[in-house]
Amino acid sequence: MKLYDNATAPNPRRVRIFVAEKGLEIPLVAVNIQRKENHAPEFLEINPLAAVPVLETDAGEPISESLAICRYLEALHPQPALFGTQPDEKGRIEMWIHRVEFEFVQRVFLCFQNTHDYMKGRMPQVPEFGELSRERAQRFLDLLERQLAGTRFVAGDGFSMADISLLCGLEFGRVIGIRATEQHAAITRWHEEVAARPSAKA
Question: Has residue 196 got a pLDDT over 90?
Fold first, then answer.
């Protein structure tokens, strides 16, 4: 088993944190996306979408998409459970994974793609759409603040995949100025605790 990785991209980081929380050791294969190594023919055979991360299983099968990789590893190594154990808990975690993914992380990525200088010449940019995505991501933090005012972690009292996704999205958002403000005391408290976990350094 090995993980095709990039040290600076947020999606591979989600998997690295998940792996660290599980106490697993999976060899990393660095893919330099700045040099477009992800578009090399040999990598496109592994993932035609030219994206990292990709997990190559012991059977040699490639699995891409960070959540799919984490679910695969959860099935192999159920403890500690990062997608929940009981039906109510699983449903609540899944709900918040989707909320964080589609209402925040995706908005952060869209803002980055459409407003950051790094993406100029790499793809067509629509700055107005990027700014709309920024506004919606920032607005989601208000909803999240209300949630975290009543819970220790995003989906309840236990650390979960929802926290991993939010941590990576929130810290990547700083690149384009999307961040918690002084009005987000609960998010700040949550971030200080989660960022201090050893896995956050993965």
Answer: yes
When the pLDDT of each residue in the chain is averaged and rounded to a whole number, the result is 97
User: Does the pLDDT value for residue 122 go beyond 90?
Assistant: no
3-state secondary structure of 166: helix
Note if the pTM is more than 0.85: yes
* Fold designation for 2-76: Glutaredoxin (3.40.30)
Rounded to a whole number of angstroms, the distance between the first and last alpha carbons of the chain is 18
Which residue type sits at 167? L
User: Distance of CA 12 to CAs 145, 167, 181, Å?
Assistant: 26, 13, 27
Q: In this structure, which topology does domain 87-201 adopt according to CATH?
A: Glutathione S-transferase Yfyf (Class Pi); Chain A, domain 2 (1.20.1050)
Helix segments in 63-180, DSSP class H: 66-76, 87-100, 106-115, 127-148, 161-173
Q: Hey, which residues does 55 pair with through a beta bridge?
A: 3, 63
